[in-house]
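Q: Structure tokens for this one, please.
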Amino acid sequence: MQLNSLILQREPVKDITWAPNSVNLNISSSDAKIFLWSLRGASVCMVPPMTQKPNFSVTKSIWNPNGKNFAAIESNSGLVFVYPQLSFF
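A: Here is the predicted structure, written as tokens:
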């Protein structure tokens, strides 16, 4: 075994979700970001600024059963965002 990646979070982690049938991972933290990780690389999804409010944080992400897209949920205001699959997955 060898280390593939190291992810350092600046904010507390709220949710970690594995995609179905793959090693893709979503990490939601206490800010308006969702960190996406796979064996091929990592990326950050930013929630659109026009929808952010004070104390906004993505609290959960739920993958579509096909593993190609997911919904991000912000529980304080009940907002839901759907993200398509990114090219590096």
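A few notes: Residues 85-89 have pLDDT under 50 and may be disordered. Residues 13-83 form one domain.
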